[in-house]
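[Target chain]
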Amino acid sequence: MNSEEEFFDAETGLESDDSCEVSFKDALVFDSKQVTDGKATQENGVWERRKTLPAEMISRNNFSVWSILKKCIGMELSKIAMPVVFNEPLSFLQRISEYMEHTHLIHKACSLSDSIDRMQVVAAFAVSSVASQWERTGKPFNPLLGETYELIREDEGYRLISEQVSHHPPISAFHAQSLKQEFEFHGSIYPKLKFWGKSVEAEPKGTMTLELLKHKEAYTWTNPMCCVHNIILGKLWIEQYGTVEIVNHSTGDKCVLNFKPCGMFGKELHKVEGHIQDKSKKKRRVIYGKWTECMYSVDPKVYEANKKSDKKAAGDSKKLKQEHSCEGEEADELPEVQETVTVIPGSALLWRITPRPAHSAQMYNFTSFAMTLNELEPSMERLLAPTDCRLRPDIRAMENGDIDAASTEKERLEEKQRASRRERSKDEEEWSTRWFQLGTNPHTGAEDWLYTGGYFDRNYTDCPNIY
């Protein structure tokens, strides 16, 4: 059975604050024009992206995941088939494309002349690229071997292609490029997941590479760990934790970001703190905020002075109050979270999350950006590769609210994939990827799947029949 529990990529809408400086101010990608029945509308003959899904999220109340996972404690979940009701109507390849929601940050970095300024915006982009994971507790569909996804956003100035290049282990490769040859952003992801009794932990193995072509710079980093709590009992909630090190291979600048775990009393939940250092290891900027909300930059001396002041204030005003640990006896309690970041005077706002639509909770907690990813735009079907996710019948059925059809189609596609594998094995034939090939990342020296080009020439005659 092919299944890989991946909970990759999230967001939440947040309150504003009054920082002393608000440079690099975020902008909403989508406008607020009206839409009917989840379908794209036309105004003055111009097609608009949809703002909702065709059907609301299917209820999971009558389904138990415990019967499936109780024998899997401590195991990697690469071969566990999950009922389709625990999915969300997107492929993991589409989930990867959510890295691009805040592409304006890359454009901002391209426009800056100072390498430290560029690094702090790249750091904000690295945080923003995992922000859509917040409250996204549905599992994306496992991509079939050879499955692809393309995304062209002329309004944001880029196009992206991704391909499922391996089935065991499951590896997804992607490559995004600026339409004006300003940047390239690429990587390959091998999500490793384990079930620990009350939670599922996802380790997103794989390196992200961002190249700013005008500046002849390359940045690399690895995304943080992700944990989904209360898989069996209680309210599902997500935390991300671990150290993310962003390296500028051209200048030697480095940004070290600490995605903080929940901690004993939940005070650190969602917090991200770190610093930028130059090649001489001198701290140049401190970066802080929450991956669910916003990120700021401040001078290190100002940050340290503020920290000392806060410690003194905390020592003077200790209170006896009961706090809840993340570790409940039956369920992992979701701590009460302060919904805003305390802004240090003199800070610059690097990024603020785009608020989610009001109906997001009924739509798998999708962002406005995610709502559009499985939409078939007018005349798109005749241009798409036959392997594109939008043409998958199981995802389409789930998006339309037909759980029975989605389940039937999912099983059919998985059996078709197994049959193809048996045929290749019998003929001693190796699977051949179409758009990516295994090579060496020129910046890290590590093994990586690299885009070979040609996808947008629209010649798909030799694409496999996977659906």
The first helix runs from residue 66 to 69. The chain is about 20% helix and 25% strand.
